[in-house]
Batch of 4 targets.
Target 1
Amino acid sequence: MILMAGLTQAIDDLIGRLCLDSYPCGRGSWCKPRLRECEEQDDDGECDDAALEEEDALLELLRSPLSPWREEYSWSPQALALRELAVKTPEILKDNFIYSFFTVLRIVDKRVSVIDEGLLRFSCLEELVLSANNITTLPPENLPKTLQVLELYANHISSLKSLSTHPPPPHLQHLGLGNNTLSHPEDLQIFTADLWPQLLSLDLSWSGFTELAVVVEALSGLPRLQSLVLEGSPLTLTPSYPGFVLDSLLRLLYLDETRVTPDDRHRFNGLAQFKVCEEAEVTVCVLKMRGVPRPALPLDEFPLVSHSYSVSYEFLDHPQSQDSEQHGEEASSSCSPEDHLKTSRGRQNQAMNNTAKQEWAETIEFNYRKTHHSRDLTALKNFLLRGLWLSVEEEKVLSWPAPPEESAGTKTSADKKGKEITDMGQKSKDKKKKKESMLNLIHEPPVKHTLASVHVELKDLLEGKNQIQVKCDLGVLFSEKSMRTTVSRDKEQSKRPKEVKKEERKNISSGETSAQRTGTSSKGKGKRRVENETPSAPADDLMHSSMEPLVVEFSVQLGRVTSTSQFTNPHCSTTTLSDL
């Protein structure tokens, strides 16, 4: 059973914590000098010094941050003033006076779920902040008529139908409905000049509205609207935002808490006459990558080993993404009818996208670019809130010479050329390419391996940023050669005689260096010295690798119309940002 927490109960609890009838407030033995002030006045009409000192001491107990009688006053600037009155003139603190004394109330994160009619007792209330509570409905009949600011950020309000039956306070200047569950276009129909004649500021941030033209048309009826916040809503992902809003609502001075400049007006002048494109465009770029360990060369002639690398990332899988711009590997195959059905219901799957495979280099240039299109703005918003995973993949292919029966026509020439290549004694990349071109090779199925993955935050695209450029640090990777050498060294150390280990530990504890131990050593001891010094090379290799983390240069950008001059066709179906 869920208990409904009333607003006035929460306010009464806060007022009760002020202890207006207890020390150091109210009447009591601690305030006797102040009660006798009329009898102790001097001839000139001034109060006795002892009474004034007593009152100042009591007031200091209310104000000092170190005082045990100090209370929390952030919920209302009138809270401290009311306690001071309880020290100076406690006799005037009647219930009606206390309720009418408050003009500002900030009841934040108190689990309030109901705005009850008891709020009407606060007859002079001008500002009411109820952020981060559990309020589901907005009853305008329970709001004082004097209210000018109403903030309901981060509640659970899903409908504004109640405002159509009862008018809101007539002098309301700010209405904050951000981070609620509003999404229905009919909720916007209540924003009329008759209901909101004084409204200057409206916050609809992080709501579920998806149709930019519908929102703008509804808000255009507010005669005094000067500040509008739509940040975090799906409609802000469309290319026409914010230009279409600025050119449609000419009285706006602030949009998403940013000052509207004359240059903004000039750049977007005339944009309101074009049709709004309700399709978002998100361009993903993978530029380059550094920090991949150099692949280990094979010890024998065969098999030939080829390594290639690619970067993959997840994104929403939409059928309309097939015609997107891509430089690099082609887009994946078209979606099935089942996937299309899921898309139409707003339950898109996430598909993996891959760059073209590149051979190893200190800096691997991908220059990958792909533009994703999405008409489901709600699904795209949720995806950006979660962020995406980016992975680096390695593909290794082993190649062997073809058996004689499979290469009879080219056996003699292949053997001859293969022998010539072997005699060269080189194991570089050029030699491997020559072998592959001169020999008839059989390639094994590729072995794919994910080297590392990293999560990329994309929430900034919903908070006003048009582009995110990051250097994704996937940590330090170690080459196969380094790992093999380290493992071999560990095995060799474990197989060495216990006497040798014991002697080495003794020498180390006594401070004897390796050069001192081997300066006049015998042949056997010299051999041991060489064995001890050989692992220094892989140690250097590991140290070098630790200095070079795997870094991928990655960017995500929203398609935006930056000026009206970009448009040559008023129809969105034939004009997209990719064509401009």
Target 2
Amino acid sequence: MFRTCLQRLVRRHSLFFLQPKQRFHHGKLQVSAEVASALKNGQPVVALESTIISHGMPYPQNLRTAQQVEQIIRKNQCVPATIAIIKGIVHVGLEEKQLEQLAHPSFKCTKTSRRDLPYVLAQNLNGGTTVSATMLLAHKAGIPIFVTGGIGGVHRGAESTMDISSDLTELGRTPVTVISAGVKSILDIGRTLEFLETQGVCVASFGPTTDFPAFFTPKSGFHAPMNVKDPLEAAQLIAAHHKLALESGVLIGVPLSDRFASLGKTIETAIKMAVAEAEDQSIRGKDITPFILQRVAELTKGVSLESNIALILNNANVGSQIALELSNLQQQTRETTHTVLNSEIKEKVVVIGGALHDFYVRLEDEYKLETDGRMIPGSCSQSFGGVGFNIANCLGKLGVPTSFVSAVGQDPTGTQFLKSYNHIDLSGVMQIPGRLTASYCGFLQPHGHLIFGVGNSEILESISVQQIHSMENYIKNAPLVCVDANLNSDAILTLCELCQKHGVPVWFEPTDHVKASKFFLWPVGSMFTYISPNESEFRAIHHAITGTTTESLLDADLSQKENVDAILKQYATMCRDLISFVPVIILTLGKLGVLIAHCDKTGTHLPLKGSKIFKRPEDMVAKFFPVYGLENVLSVSGSGDCFAAGLLAGILHGHPLDLSIKLGLMTANLSLLSTETVPDTIKPVCCTPLHIAQSYKAPPPRMIDL
């Protein structure tokens, strides 16, 4: 229960934010107010073990060292989190009195590794956590970096005794970075490194060489597979490890400074003597390391203790510098992506519209169709499509939680559709007995442009008022609802009334100029928050509302700037005619680009649930976004739907307007460059600002003056 509850609270790839003094599992894990606040605010935190204090050093050196370590970490702008168990409660971050209590010889304390945790907690005992237990608990609390003295390893003669430290297996299964002075020289360092490789642990030495340290000596005679030269390189290694979501840890070996390294031979001699004495006295298991360290301190008259303290302080200095650099990298990532934590989409967007079985015929050569019965060379393909479904499908591929509402036939095609997509919620799709799933056949020129299409979408008229009402719980919680023009008028009116009731904006996606205009001949059109027509659909909507007729303006020579300026000004003026009717107009102008008009002069974001809606024509602003990268087009089918989905995803993630439009244009491009309507190249990573900036280098947008 303890493990399960904690696991639910860990967020992979990011720090886990805890509220100050918040407890878990009836007080079995308590995070100090200082550590909780640091984690919540994205400050770097460094985990520290407590066995060094409780079992590794004599009093009062243990207390002074623990205090010095925390001081060094704070000096490097990090927060220390010493982990220990006091009366059966795991404490992540100790107060000064608790640190003093832990260090005092009168304090009875169990040396606690992973295996001991259940017993120590169940019996309400005190525990000094070893490397393995500290790694586990640090990970549960969301702390990615842990500083210690040295780790355990494979003991000499392990081929017969099987004496291998649990530190190594913990490194193989817990994604925490351990900063240490390497492996104690009393161990079999070569076999330890081999074992770590088997466990998939990334091992690196810190400094200019790959020489792997051996606790008191900077060079063990063995080499790490790699090295990191400074704290930034180390942080970059850890950040890459996090991005890969590896379940194993990272070990960084930090060599002791040369001043103490000169004493290494003296200490090594004492270690060999202590190991022999331990063997003679049959000291085994977890008692052997404390015995050897104490005996070495006696034999070297305190020199080893001085070196031990020095290496721990050195590790704390290096480890906290790495933690600070890692925090800076994570902050930069948050600033450039801000999609995982700050703009996480918790509720499903609802998309209601057509689901069709699409067939496409692509001609091999430019050809003027003749009705003489000949067979024309070309290729055929099929997939599921429809405006509403394409948008829902694209949103799902972008990682946006999406619920799709539609109707399909109780036929093999409809059954296959319901089984084919698990990245969107299809529970709102009705399967209607005795009806055929809607179908469409489009004929394309070799360059992908549509010649004409033939379709049967009568079943979509069966999306009923009752079906819309059955989705009210989805609708009222949605940040936005998108509907295409394939629905009947009563269903769309019911949908808009429910959305108004719950304050949810409606995005209306026209499917052709005939269907686009009919909804604006009666009041339902004024209930839309967004419309996203192409040029012909926009002219039809403008005519339905104003009664005026305009000819297509895109036939002019678009290579002439004055023609483009005139077109944009004309369409922006037409948008102002409609803006009191529909507050956000997204007009796609083919190879020219996208014009967006809205009434929030001071706002950089488009409205979602709970946003204030502006409709005053005098406040309207119009902005034009040129397109980029239209070479090598394979198919135009679905590009408009992918644009709408990409723009929607940007709005839902809380991206600014410019970034959201760029995301829409980028997803449209991915569709244009593929024969698939919604290609698999559209992925969640597309939504990150850094990816957009790197992948879609569009010309800058410009305001249209009216």
Target 3
Amino acid sequence: MIRFVVENLVRQNKAMLLLSALLEEEFSRLQKGEPRSVSQIELSIQELMRQIAVERASLRRLVGRVHAGAQRVSDLYPAVDETVRGELQGLLQILDDTEQRCAVQAGKNKGLVTALYDQSRKLLGFMHEEVRPKPKNAYSAKGRFVNSYTGARLIQGRF
């Protein structure tokens, strides 16, 4: 049963390495400004995250079967010999390091996406402001102060 736990941890490590590579690819595509390819990578990332969650749930069940009452891999340490304990600790350390790299990269991606969103929103706001009719508070030809309608309109005329 311990062999299944080790195999699960190896699969999770490989999945996390793939996630790290996908996050870095997403960042490079965000920098290049390729929104279609970013959405494709995002779908791959979401599917990989789902698979990692399934592996984690599977690992919890395996750990519970190996040792009654155990919920974490570290709960198995007293029940296994020194070499297996070292292997489990090594795999968990690699997994943790990879998760930290993924978290840092995801934070960078989020920062870049937020900056691009703000830039697009401000540019769109500027363009709307330029298109909107400007207020014309001035005197008419008859000498009266005219409060003109400043909303959008296509035609203004009289019958």
Target 4
Amino acid sequence: MPTMASVLEDPTLERHFNGHKDAVTCADFSPNHKQLASGSVDKSLMIWNLALKTRAFRFVGHQDVITGVQFSPSGSLVATSSKDRTVRLWTPSMKGESTVFKAHTAAVRSVAFSHDGQRLVTASDDKSVKVWSVHRQCFIYSLNQHTNWVRCARFSPDGRLIASCGDDRSVRLWDTSSKQCINCFTDYGGSTTFVEFNSSGTCIASSGADSSLKIWDLRTNKLIQHYQVHSAGINSFSFHPSNNYLISGSTDGTVKILDLLEGRLIYTLHGHKGAVITVAFSRTGNQFASGGADSQVLLWRTNFDTKSYQEVLQQHSRRSTPDPPPHLSDIHPKVPHLHHPQSTAIRISQTVADTRSADPHVIELGHAVHSTMLLNGRTRLMPTQAAANRHHSNRLPACHVANLREEGWKGDESARREGSSLGSQIGAGGGGRGRREEEEETEEINPQEVLSGHQSSLDSTLRHIVQQLDILTQTVSVLEERLTLTEDKLKECLFQQSKIFKDVRSSGERRRTDSRETNGSSVHFT
């Protein structure tokens, strides 16, 4: 019998999307398969229409790198996270409107919707994971057991769990009802960069800066697959909707495609110049997208999922498991897979032209119409300075990312983590600074600093302020959780009182009825 790889068709490159002015950091397909969203170091959100000869939209509003993007399950909203410490909810229309959530005290690394679209989960460099209400546009609760930057957080398909990972080298699993960490996987040699549930919610996968990718069975809490197929850190990965395949993007410049049923690498794609920072399957799995340090978004036709899954099911029908086959817990061997991808590599020319359409016309769209800010434990609606800032932001000065392209996507993060004071970020010299940062330095220079020249004193003051803000945010989180518990207890007390009152009233009515009947009987016998 031929192997699975021999009967599958190769993935093909369909289109290039050129419009970002800097590295592409995140991407997601719309539920209706008509649009693709991407975020970038250039601070803009792009919405690409997948139909030919249609316009693309650039949404401007974030003040720093966009780190995460996701369509809501209905497709009516797009959420983005940014290093500017905010999360925005965009309406993907010509109006370009957005709502701003702000409660993190440091860069926000990821944002994701729950599968019912009611909640958002965010992960941040302030070491916290936060959950938000989409419709009420307010903060709900915070999860605070990570001891370093949190890189990624995701809801399980049923919404009962949250998985998160970060620079403390751990993957944590949280119960959304109890708000408690119910499991922690720590078998990593470096930072964990990305985490995701499979579509059935039975497994989570996590990737590391050490180039490893691991899959854990949540029913047994055991590691069931471990891949070491990249030569540099993995920045992103995505499960195929069938759970039979997984794609990963790495700083080594490649996209890898894994066959999870056979437990092996089947394709290596070389379409990007430099690091591949994001990969994502469409909701149906027939397409996937990749984005990288070369500022390009590439759209691929999957093809390798054309094999009938009925054949796969028949091949696995005799597996010794009580659960419906096939599933990952029955894959052997359960040891690291050290593959040699040369024989299965598919090299896509880096200069291949988009043969189907020219670059789409890009329409620039504006800033937020209002923002939601967490102040003193309450959510308040804040007006924005859209009119004042529109011209400045629409210029979108490109950030200099020579270091990012030479040393890899994550290289600058470790350097910043070692010198994490806010003052060092403001005062750092050299070519790594962008034009935007230099403009802000020029516009917002402190008169006291000019007169005294004591940079170290200012750095110390800023560090102290940041620490105090961090403590204040944690305090607010605790108070809000306590307030929620108090409200729940109050509702329960009111319900019990109402029940008791009804019982007392019905009891009194019965006594009055019995009394009248007794009086009537007495009169009758008299």
